[in-house]
Every structure is written in structure tokens, then in C-alpha cells.
Amino acid sequence: TTDVTPLDRDRLARLHEREREAFRAARPRSAALAERARAHMPGGVPMSWMVKWPGDFPVFVESAEGAHFTCVDGIDHVDLCLGDTGAMMGHSPAATVEAVTRQLSRGITTMLPTDDAIAVSQGLAERFGLPYWQFTLTATDANRHALRYARLLTGRSKVVVHNWCYHGSVDETFATLDDHGETIDRPSTIGPPVPVSETTRVVEFNDLEALERALAHGDVAAVLVEPALTNIGIVLPDPGYNEGVRELATRYGALLVNDETHTVCAGPSGYTGAHGLQPDLLVIGKSIGGGIPCGTFGFTADIADRIARSVELEDIDVGGVGGTLAGNGLSSAAMRATLEHVMTPAAFEHMVPLADAWADGVQAAVDRVGAGWNVTRLGARAEYTFVPRPPRTGQEAHESDDFELQQYLHLYALNRGILLTPFHNMALMSPATTAADVAAHTTMFDDCVSELFAGR
Ligand code: PMP
């Protein structure tokens, strides 16, 4: 490629310190709440990973609406994180709020179905082409249940996943490859029940030969994939890759599970629908409830039939698939309204061009300063990586990361009222995101890299 401007790490460290000070100075109320929060929550956060947000303490939210939120210090933010997809349809979309408000005074959870669940399952069947659906409260649980059914139906034990994948806190997925291509526990895995190599085989994304080797043992119940990786940066499939995965899973008797929780940014029927893929099971959560907790997995008629024949009625409540709150009235009302009125083809026609405009803005700035980074696009989502060419595997994406640089860029953005998805450099567009929101990011990013790569 062309000349790459080297990154001056001393300069980065100096600028980072300046931004940390600016962050503290601008947010006294978040600072005070963070201090109080430490009394009974370790790190002052409701969930441990939230300590990783850039800045010395998390931003406390006052309110969120559409594509913006206001923090307790009264600062308005363009939200390009959108709850890492939970709020992909915008914060508190009107149709969802209306349906949920109605349901709130009609009973939140009863362990009995409401008719909304019928409409949701029918809508999902039409959208994703799989006839049968079951509900959970998280995508994590939907993945967990999909894997349990796959093991039940195949009588096999192992799961195949991609290197550096993320599918929620599912035990079998916290696996990576060592230098010899062996499956090992992902670094920093917290208390795995057994060494993950007992349950899992890891293969690189875009490597069909490795997948065939993993399947050839004849002991694989399920291949659990994102059809494009989105949790280690975005890694797009080579032409024919997903079709090859389908063909190999079939040939070796494993069930194929597409986790569309993030890749639904590709269109109203996800990457699966946009590219005519044919998984045996499909998992999705987060966005389809407009932010109300929900998750679901769909499957073929053959699988539904085989499950019905293998699970005893008497023990069906304690089989390891379930959840007292699953399919509750509130969650079902939220999914119905969101799917019918918010997550529409028209919404994507608005969102996808905005993601392209965001990507164009980032790429232009990167090229102007010669940073040697690239931008990857996936429907309503885009991401930049600190290497000149898009990574083809999870490993390449993992190696391209630069934690300090990433924290700096995120903090610089936050200090100028823009929230990026944490842990990588990703932006997601909602139906409420505007061209002005994207332009604000473009200007901010251009200023940021100009200063970082001084003189360019
Ligand atoms: N699948 C994918 C692809 C995800 O990215 C995530 C969360 N980032 C999940 C599943 C799990 O979602 P949840 O945390 O809501 O259970």
C-alpha cells in the first residue's frame, strides 16, 4: 500500500491524559454517582465489564431517546453504540413503547402465553424462513438452548465455533486457538466448568479446510456461527464461505446454527435472509424487542418433530431448556410491536446509507492522514480496524487491535458527545439516526486523527 504515517506513542499517551482530564472536568455528576456506586457494586458498576468503558468512570445516563442520550451532567450524545444492538431500532421506539405500556398494566409475567407470541412466531417464520420458534430473555440463552437441542438430536457432544467469536456467556464458546492450532480456553475465561477443549473445537473464519477437519471426527453436534464476525471487529465471509459451511455441516451430520443477534444489521431478515442462507437453527435477541429483554431461536419442521419425539412431558420443565420469565407478556408485546412496526424494510433503507456515509467519512480521514487503517461495512453497521486491509480471520482481527489507541479514540469521541461501541471501533445506525449525527462523527473523527498524526 501507500505510505503509512507512523503512530507517535508518546504523543498518544499525552493526548490520552489530556482527554482523561477533560472527561473528569466535564462530568462531576457522573463522577459523584460513580463514587456512590462503589459502596455496594464492585468497581461502581452494575456488571463487571462496564469498568472497561473509556474514562475513569462510566457515564451515567439521565435519559435516552431515538439515536441520542443525555447524561446526568446534561450533555447530549449521539449514540452510535445503541446498547451494542439492543437499541438498534432506536431508544424507546414509539410503537414498542405504546405496546409495552399497554401490557404493563395487563400483567407482566404469568408463565402462560399471550396471543402476541402467536403473532411474533408467525412473523419470525415469514422473515427468516424457519417455521418453529421458542423464546428466551437473552440471545445467550437462545444459543445455549440451541446447543442443547443439537446435542440431544445428534447424540453427539462437540460444538464448533470460530476463533475469537462471541455468542454471549455460553460456556462452550469461550475457546480460542493456540499457536499449534489446538483449542484452548479463551484467555481470562472466568471459572470454566471443564477445559473447553472437552466441549468445543475452534476453527478460523473463512477456513473451510479447518472446518472439515473439525467435523471429520464425526462427533460434532452443532456448528455455531455468526455469518459475519461482529465481535472482534467485523470480519466478512469470502464469497461462498457460508455456503461451504452449510454443505460441510450437512455432509458430516452436524446442525448449523446461525446467530443473527448482531448480523441482523444486514437487513430485515438478517444476513441469513439477505444472502439466502439455510441454517437448521437461527438465534436472535436484543434488537427485536426494541430494548425489552427477549431472545428467540427458530428451527426447521424436522427438528421440531424430532424434539417432540425425544422430550418426555413429565420432565420437560427440568431438562435444561427453559426460563420462568421466557415468553412473558411484556417481552412478547415488545417483540410483536418492534417486528411489525419498527424493524421494517423501510427502516433499513434509512439505516444502511447512513452507515455507508459514516464509513466514507472515516475512510476519507484515514486516507488523508495516511493512518493505514481500513473500514469494513455490514449493512447498518461499520467498523474501522488499525490495519490496511480488512481482516479475513478472527485471529487477524484480534492481532490488529491496539487497546490504548482504541480507548483514546473512544474517549476523544465521548468528550465531544459521541458514543462508539466499546471494545472495538464500531458504529451502528438506527431508524432515528440522522445525516447530521453522522456528519458530527465525520468532523470529530477528522479533527481527532489530524491531531493524532500531527501535521497531516
Ligand atoms: N450473540 C451475539 C452474536 C452477540 O453479539 C451477543 C452479545 N453481544 C450475544 C449473542 C448475547 O446477547 P446477550 O448478552 O443479550 O445475551
TrEMBL record:
Single GO MF descriptor: pyridoxal phosphate binding
Protein name: Glutamate-1-semialdehyde 2,1-aminomutase
NCBIfam families: PRK07046.1 (NF005453)
Family under the similarity heading: Belongs to the class-III pyridoxal-phosphate-dependent aminotransferase family.
InterPro entries in the cross-refs: Aminotrans_3, PyrdxlP-dep_Trfase, PyrdxlP-dep_Trfase_major, PyrdxlP-dep_Trfase_small
Keywords, sorted A to Z: Pyridoxal phosphate
Pfam families referenced in this protein's UniProt entry, alphabetically: Aminotran_3
Cofactor(s) needed by this chain: pyridoxal 5'-phosphate
Cited SUPFAM superfamilies: PLP-dependent transferases (SSF53383)
Domain of life: Bacteria
